[in-house]
Design goal:
The structure holds 2 protein chains of 2 kinds. By secondary structure, chain A is of the alpha+beta class. Helix content of chain A is 48%, strand content 14%. In chain A, the strands form 2 sheets. Chain A has a 3-stranded antiparallel β-sheet. Chain A is rod-shaped and about 145 Å long. Chain B is 68% helix and 0% strand. Chain B contains 16 helices and no strands. The two termini of chain B are 33 Å apart. Classes of the chains: A alpha+beta, B mainly alpha.
């Protein structure tokens, strides 16, 4: 068992001085090694960091695959995807596909929800923005007025075709009903005539 | 210096404009010393900028980062940006402040930091006043700073300032004693208080063995103790408890802002340069490099040679144009003569040597600062009174015996 030894005070005095000199030497040896060693700072805009695969950064969006089904928007836990469509059902034109990066938490649920693989998260990370409006990124290709007019005309044409087809069907149905009714009336009349015989 | 001014006034300015010869004789001296003082203050301002950059860069390297590297190439314009920011700051005086003390303190501290430069040589002939009591003057006028710091501590009426001021005054005054003892070692060995003569004494010897630290074991120990006392006197870490950021905000300059703070800042760096330069002059051979230089001919002063040339050429009764021609011709002739060029080369090499030594010691200051943690006030006093003081006495006694026994 080691107990605190009572040292000679003179010896203790010189031991203290030696300890002070030695510890200073030891510490300064360590710091000078760091001084000449490699630095950990990365000069960011000049040198880029290596992003590990699987990093979830800014979305990549393929408009040609997107059908505007809003599955991603429904899956989003923070409601950061805004979609605006022209038309309904399958005949839609995508006017807006916005992601608000002030809200987005890069959870990848939107990409998982997408049935057409139109949305994925890339390895891009530089997302700094100066204002709240800048954080809102527009992914859809901006559509010109002519395009929209053309699409509206297409929609109208399809609508007209659909209505025409419907009207034709209706007319057919009416004609068929009419024929049936006539047939039934004929039958009834025949039935009334039968007992007289 | 005085004969230089005399010569310049009589043969230079007097030749350009003869009525100047009739102005009172003290006027050219006052003007010359004002210009010299202005050059030194400007030099110190630039030095403070360079040293802050050096400090931040070296601190960064020791902490495995890069330090300021954005403003200008490698960040060398960073101190300039800091200085502009400092000058643009609002000058605030606390409402509880004592106006006169608050205003006078930065000036007095700055004065105390700048006065040693009156006798501190940059090289053999680049010195404002080659005073016989130069070393004594430096040590004496450094102590003026203590008064200014006590005023800065009391003036703003803030508790942080008061604690910082009292701590620094206690620390500076106590460390004057071991510092004086270490200086005494060199005074004994060199037998002079004149800084030029002390350096001249260190030039006798092969290579660097002529330097004071290799001439006597007492001087070798005294060098390290002088440096430690200098660290404490300029409140560098690990003795930075007068401005201990973690407890006292900033110590005695807590309440100062803008240009007043800049004065404290500059005087701190000036005091650091004085300590480094003094350690280099007293112990490390001053402006002598490690390689011995060829000796100059006897009495080889550039201005003496020039003076002789003027006296030889200028007879009585020359016109203004003629005397100007003689002045310029002799100046150019002497400056481009073999002797003139040799002297100029010696002075330039001397200044470079001096700066290299001072910067080396300054680098160690920063290195120590980022290595050792701050020590307590009782440890500061223990180190001063129980370690440095007795060892300093032993060293001084050794030096005295050495001078007597081995002359």
């Amino acid at each position: 068992m080691k107990t605190a030894e009572k040292k000679n005070p003179v010896a203790q005095y010189f031991a203290d001085i030696w300890a002070g000199i030695y510890t200073t030497y030891a510490g300064m040896k360590i710091t000078i090694e760091y001084f000449f060693g490699k630095k950990v700072t990365m000069r960011y805009p000049e040198e880029k960091p290596v992003i590990p695969p699987g990093h979830r950064g800014v979305h990549v969006y393929d408009e040609s695959k997107c059908t505007g089904c809003r599955a991603c928007a429904r899956a989003c836990p923070v409601d950061c995807i805004g979609i605006d469509l022209l038309g309904r059902g399958r005949d839609v034109m995508l006017l807006q596909f916005d992601i608000d990066y002030a809200r987005c938490l890069f959870c990848n649920l939107c990409a998982e929800a997408c049935p057409f693989n139109a949305l994925a998260l890339s390895e891009k990370y530089n997302l700094a923005c100066g204002s709240r409006g800048d954080c809102l990124r527009h992914f859809a290709r901006p559509k010109s007025q002519e395009e929209m007019d053309e699409f509206k005309a297409l929609l109208a044409r399809k609508e007209a075709e659909r209505k025409e087809a419907q009207a034709k069907k209706e007319a057919e149905r009416k004609a068929r009903e009419e024929a049936e009714r006539k047939a039934r009336e004929e039958a009834e009349r025949n039935a009334q005539e039968q007992p007289e015989q | 210096m005085n004969d230089v001014i005399q010569t310049f006034h009589e043969s230079g300015a007097g030749a350009l404009f003869p009525p100047l010869l009739h102005v009172p004789s003290w006027l050219p001296f006052v003007l010359a010393y004002l210009v010299g003082g202005g050059i030194i203050v400007a030099f110190m301002a630039i030095m403070a900028l360079v040293w802050t950059y050096g400090e931040r860069r070296i601190a960064g390297f020791i902490q495995v980062r890069l330090g300021p590297n954005r403003v200008g190439p490698l960040g060398i314009l960073q101190p300039l940006a800091d200085a502009i920011k400092l000058l643009a700051k609002e000058d605030i005086m606390p409402s509880a402040a004592n106006w006169s003390l608050f205003t006078a303190a930065p000036i007095l501290v700055f004065l105390g930091a700048m006065l040693p430069f009156a006798v501190l040589p940059f090289s053999e002939r680049i010195v404002l006043t080659n005073m016989q009591l130069g070393l004594y003057f430096v040590l004496a006028f450094q102590a003026i700073e203590v008064i200014g710091i006590l005023m800065a501590g009391w003036g703003p009426g803030s508790k942080w300032s008061l604690y910082g001021g009292m701590r620094l005054a206690a620390q500076m005054l106590s460390y004057e004693i071991p510092m004086g003892l270490c200086v005494l070692v060199v005074i004994f060995l060199a037998g002079s208080l004149n800084l030029g003569e002390i350096v001249a004494w260190q030039s006798q010897g092969p290579w660097i063995l002529g330097w004071a630290i290799f001439r006597s074991p007492a001087a070798f120990v005294a060098f390290f103790m002088f440096y430690i006392a200098g660290l404490a006197g300029t409140k560098r870490a690990p003795f930075d408890l007068p401005e201990a950021e973690s407890e006292l905000v900033a110590g005695y300059h807590t309440e100062y802002s803008g240009l007043r703070f800049a004065f404290f800042f500059m005087s701190e760096y000036a005091a650091m340069y004085v300590v480094c330069a003094l350690a280099a002059i007293l112990f490390l051979g001053g402006w002598h490099g490690p390689i011995p230089r060829p000796a100059l001919p006897e009495n080889a002063a550039f201005f003496n040679a020039w003076l002789d040339a003027i006296h030889a050429q200028a007879g009585g009764g020359l016109s203004v144009a003629a005397s100007l021609e003689v002045f310029a011709a002799t100046l150019a002739g002497t400056a481009f003569s073999r002797l003139g060029l040799t002297i100029a080369a010696y002075e330039i090499v001397g200044v470079i040597n001096m700066f290299l030594k001072a910067f080396g010691l300054y680098f160690v200051m920063i290195w120590v600062r980022w290595t050792l943690p701050r020590i307590r006030i009782d440890q500061v006093m223990y180190l001063c009174l129980k370690v440095l003081l007795p060892i300093g006495l032993v060293c001084a006694t050794w030096a005295a015996i050495q001078v007597v026994v081995f002359p």
